[in-house]
Write a structure and sequence with these properties.
- By secondary structure, the chain is of the alpha/beta class.
- It folds into 2 domains: about 15-260, Aspartate Aminotransferase, domain 2 (3-Layer(aba) Sandwich); about 260-395, Aspartate Aminotransferase, domain 1.
- Helices cover about 40% and strands about 15% of the residues.
- It has helices at about 15-20, 30-50, 65-75, 90-100, 120-130, 150-160, 180, 205-210, 225-235, 245-260, 260-280, 310-320, 345-360, 385-395, and strands spanning about 5, 55-65, 85, 105-110, 135, 140, 145, 160-165, 185-190, 200-205, 300, 320, 325, 335-340.
- Helix 7 (about 180) links the parallel strand 8 (about 160-165) and strand 9 (about 185-190).
- Helix 10 crosses helix 11 (about 260-280).
- The longest helix is centred in the last third of the chain and has 21 residues, at about 260-280.
- It binds pyridoxal-5'-phosphate (PLP).
- Pyridoxal-5'-phosphate binds near residues 67, 137, 139, 166 and 168.
- Pyridoxal-5'-phosphate binds near residues 91, 137, 139, 166 and 168.
Amino acid sequence: MKKLLLFTPGPVNVAKNVKAAICREDICHREVEFDNLLESIENKLLRLYEIKTISNYRAVVITGSGTAANETMLSSIVGDKNILILSNGEFGERLYKMSKIHNKNTFLLDFSWGKTLNLEKIEAYLQAHDIDIVAMVHHETSSGMLNPLEKVGALSKENGAMLIVDCVSSTGAEVIDMEKCGISFCSSSSSKAVCSYPGLSFVVGRIDEFEKLKDMPVKSTYLNLYNFYNFIKEYSQTPNTPAVPLFFALEQTLNNILDKGVANHHDSLRARAQFLRQGMLKLGLKFLIDEKDMCCVLTTVKVPFHINVTSFRQRLREKSIIIYEGKGCFKNKVFQVGNIGELSSDNLQFFLKSLEEVLRSFDPINVGNIRSINASYPVLIPSNDEVLDKAQDTA
Ligand SMILES: Cc1ncc(COP(=O)(O)O)c(C=O)c1O
């Protein structure tokens, strides 16, 4: 099968050493090798979040995609309390639907897809209602909007509510200061800006909040947050059989990020996003939301009126480039270009050149050009494979 370049919000092209990691020797998840592996992953996850007082936090790893981590939080934390979901897109809506399955006292503040969260409305709602828990999405992937964690955190705290956050697509890309923002629990996944394979997710939370879950009603056998916490605390293990090879890959990708430095990893994604955005603007494309509101992993682009998005995507696919189509109310209106995972500088330039060719194939006249890529473009930071390949060449 030929190699595809995944310019999606996840899954991603993984680094060579992450690919190699899943083929390590077989181990048993009830033996010391796995205990050590999980301990190492947990420690690295807490470092990924740059938590200052590490002794106040723990991280549990779940075999299951990002939704598993979200459902673990929502089925384990709420009990009979009142939870308010803030939504401005598909993933906020999913939190709401999921919470309704588990929690009868689920409320929704809906701000429409692609719109910013209105802080005044949130404040008024919290003042007028007895809300125990606020849940939100950090990066609303359906539009690419980065929601304001610190401000919602402050409002939640002022009104005596706990904050839990879906950080599935922002972890590893943006600063998530759990301490400063007053986040009790947040969820994420292995397959987005953490740059590993899909199939693992995790919940990071405050120890005092994990302890409070002990006597909560159990609503799920598998997705039971206290159970995950208790197992890692008592045995450095998971309650059920974990996807061990994916844990090897997760540890390797965390090593890659921590070796590079978390801030450098964020910066490299931001430089890639800026590079692609400048190129796409040069081609005459327009974005769905303001650049200042975007997360650095993804750009949501308006489909030019004369283009059929499915055949547009197909023509890029013929050049081995995979992008996303918009969903829900954005279907046929936008496409999404991710910039996470193992993408080299050449891959990014190839993407822009291919995009230009495909746009011209629809409309030869009204397309700009990216030939003048020059020093004014952000300097791209080499990817893991580029660094390793260069080291081998010079060895
Ligand atoms: C913000 C957000 N939350 C949750 C999910 C669901 O994650 P998964 O598809 O890994 O279950 C996604 C997936 O794209 C996402 O972007």
